Task: inverse folding
């Protein structure tokens, strides 16, 4: 993996939220390098800054200081409009709450991502083929609220893939799913990474999810406290919990 | 392709209906009230033209609105008018208005006429029932007013503190709704020997414009109007009509704009998260602006369509309940009211659209 090019890189990223007269640091100097084709899991307790980091990586939020490079482009050096364009072309988001547009059908949700991308309109067959990856071809004309939560998340993954982004950023994609649906979604992400070489950065609380990744990053209080292969970190985490008992 | 504005319109039915109704109300208000104002003028002008005269001869600086004319001309001008080359017939008319009829509030214009010369001037009064004006105290009420107020031949009416008997029902469409003898009118209004204006009929082989020019020359300063231009002259003279129409148009645009603003603003708040999703998918400010404006445009267009329908229904209802009114739905105003409805609506949508476009994507995504 080390010889592959970086698709995501952060240098000394800090993010401070101002609440009234109080400065609340959310990220305190994050250095992260994600190589092409990696599946990186980010773990850590709630409030440690994982989601803020993901938003900054995706250009949805701006760091207070530091630099973020997406496919070699420094997000701080480009305009808001260019950041939006870059996000559209290079990044696909998968959220814990699925975030599908409830007034559109499954097909519409996928089409709109392509519409925003501005490329050639996607045909119904192409949408069907894409949904085949997430095993939902038969749900093309369903509205999101007519689907199970697991199906909704799989549609969200298909939507994230429609423009063939360089990176998928997934914010606790199994957070709202039961174990069976979690397993399906995780297997799907792992397959995408293994078979298609899709770069994925995934926030998770789920050790099983973390084990799937090539690398796990552990965060605490806005800082990265450890890097390692997922099995190592998961094992360390289990041992720490055992010792604590 | 996915059409988010259309999908939102059909999935948020209550909001859509309120928006459509608001625009429709603005459009229909303009259409019906302008139609009522201009229709009444047109109808009055048309009825005067249908008398059959060619020229209206009035006192200097008189209004084209005959209803506000008083006895300002001496009746003895009549022979002088007759002597004018090209003039075939002249008939004097004294106008007065009453605001109460059969105990009900009602504005009605009455002509005091000389029946013989009045009937010679054009088509005359086409009686559908009873007889013409023959003696003092005789009164004619046209078919529309007779039907609206259930007046029939033989009814006694008190007008201007004098007793009259309805002796005939002329067909509506020419002149005014009530006629009495010129002498009766002069006596009732204490204007003996005075008239409001003269109708002039031009000989068949003469040009109306030339005779009118001759009258202007002979009676310098007097107002001479060819009746074919009466409608235009009345609109030009209508005090405050243009201002009224302008105010009405502004009012309609304001209603459309405000309700669309409110509807779209509420929608933007309700759909903050959706906007966050679009932004996360890579939608720029222009895309968001386009989606919100397109949705508003569609609502406005449907509102205009509904407004047209409401105008037609409103016109029918008005004519059903108030048969003496005239409401002309003017083709030009279909376009103007559409521009007002859509323009007002789009202006109202601008601020919510701008706000949506400016939303912070992370805050929008976290919106509950």
Result:
């Amino acid at each position: 993996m080390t010889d592959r090019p970086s698709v995501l890189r952060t240098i000394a990223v800090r993010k401070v939220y101002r609440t009234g007269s109080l400065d609340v640091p959310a990220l305190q100097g994050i250095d992260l390098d994600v190589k092409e084709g990696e599946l990186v899991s980010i773990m850590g307790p709630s409030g440690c800054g994982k989601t803020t980091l993901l938003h900054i990586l995706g250009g949805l939020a701006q760091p207070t200081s530091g630099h973020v490079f997406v496919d070699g482009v420094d997000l701080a050096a480009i305009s808001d409009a260019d950041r939006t364009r870059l996000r559209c072309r290079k990044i696909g988001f998968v959220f814990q709450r699925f975030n599908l547009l409830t007034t559109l059908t499954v097909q519409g949700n996928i089409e709109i991502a392509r519409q925003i991308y501005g490329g050639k309109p996607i045909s119904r067959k192409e949408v069907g083929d894409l949904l085949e990856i997430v095993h939902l071809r038969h749900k093309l004309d369903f509205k999101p609220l007519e689907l199970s939560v697991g199906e909704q998340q799989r549609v969200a993954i298909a939507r994230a893939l429609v423009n063939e982004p360089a990176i998928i950023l997934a914010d606790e994609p199994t957070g709202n799913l039961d174990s069976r649906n979690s397993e399906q979604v995780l297997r799907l992400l792992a397959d995408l990474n293994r078979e298609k070489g899709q770069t994925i950065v995934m926030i998770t609380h789920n050790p099983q999810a973390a084990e799937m990744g090539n690398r796990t990053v552990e965060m605490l209080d806005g800082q990265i406290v450890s890097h390692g292969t997922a099995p190592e970190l998961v094992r360390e985490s289990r041992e720490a919990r055992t010792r604590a008992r | 392709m996915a059409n988010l504005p259309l999908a939102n319109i059909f999935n948020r039915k209550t909001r859509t209906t309120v928006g459509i109704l608001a625009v429709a109300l603005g459009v229909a208000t303009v259409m019906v009230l302008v139609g009522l104002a201009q229709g009444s003028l047109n109808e009055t002008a048309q009825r005067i033209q249908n008398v059959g005269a060619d020229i209206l001869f009035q006192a200097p600086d008189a209004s084209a609105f005959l209803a506000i004319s008083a006895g300002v001309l001496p009746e003895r001008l009549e022979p002088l008018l007759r002597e004018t080359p090209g003039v075939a017939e002249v008939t004097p008319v004294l106008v007065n208005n009453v605001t109460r009829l059969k105990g009900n509030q009602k504005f009605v214009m009455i002509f005091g006429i000389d029946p013989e010369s009045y009937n010679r001037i054009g088509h005359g009064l086409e009686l559908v029932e009873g007889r013409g004006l023959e003696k003092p105290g005789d009164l004619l009420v046209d078919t529309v007013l007779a039907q609206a107020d259930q007046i029939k031949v033989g009814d006694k009416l008190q007008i201007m503190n004098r007793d009259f008997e309805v002796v005939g029902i002329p067909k509506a469409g020419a002149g005014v709704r009530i006629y009495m003898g010129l002498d009766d009118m002069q006596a009732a209004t204490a204007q003996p020997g005075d008239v409001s204006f003269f109708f002039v009929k031009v000989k068949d082989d003469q040009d109306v414009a030339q005779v009118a020019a001759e009258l202007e020359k002979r009676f310098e300063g007097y107002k001479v109007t060819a009746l074919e231009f009466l409608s235009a002259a009345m609109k030009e003279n209508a005090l405050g009509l243009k201002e009224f129409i302008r105010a009405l148009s502004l009012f309609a645009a304001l209603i459309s704009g405000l309700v669309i603003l409110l509807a779209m603003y509420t929608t933007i708040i309700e759909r903050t998260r959706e906007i966050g999703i679009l932004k996360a998918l890579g939608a720029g400010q222009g895309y968001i602006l386009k989606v919100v404006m397109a949705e508003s445009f569609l609502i406005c267009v449907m509102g205009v369509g509904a407004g047209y329908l409401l105008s037609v229904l409103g016109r029918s209802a008005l004519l059903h309940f108030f048969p003496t009114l005239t409401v002309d739905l003017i083709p030009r105003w279909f376009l103007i009211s559409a521009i007002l409805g859509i323009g007002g609506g789009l202006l109202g949508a601008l601020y919510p659209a701008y706000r949506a476009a400016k939303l912070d994507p992370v805050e929008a995504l976290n919106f509950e």
In short: Chain B has a mean pLDDT of 87. The longest helix of chain B spans residues 13-49.
